[in-house]
Write a structure and sequence with these properties.
The protein has about 160 residues and is mainly β. The protein has a domain of about 100 residues. Helices cover about 15% and strands about 35% of the residues. A hairpin with an 8-residue loop joins strand 2 and strand 3. About 5% of the residues have low confidence.
Length: about 160
Amino acid sequence: MTLSFRSKTALLLLLILPLPALAEPMHAQYLPPDELSVREGEPEQQQLLQVTEYSVVAGSQRQSNQTPIPVTSPLVLRLKGKTMNKGATISQVLIHFDGESKSLKKPAYDEPSRTLTLYYPATQYRVLVDLLRNEKVYCQFLSYANGHVWADLHTGSVRAR
């Protein structure tokens, strides 16, 4: 069977042109296995940010209208960077560290302020700061129609030394 010039050209174009984005998010290789099948279908939203700068905020506050007077010392990492995927609007990430709770709040993306808020145990602070100091770091947020959300900080592939 011989193909016409037109058919050969069309076949060649199919082979060399990139395919449109499929259901997988840009950095899907960094997602853990979905053993519980909670990631149903395509994500409704993906925010992917390459971190270019960060700051640490170690606060101290005292609410004088309560008895006994609680003193808290919040620890926050503020990340800024550039968006990496089409349609992303994220401009900053706030990471709150909690040393006392048994469970953490779920990641939340606030569209009006373009801020992703993450919650990590206080024990992860050193790990995250070490990544920020030494590697190219990305932050991704995915939300699905069934209410499932995923957020992470990850490095790109790094060669072992």
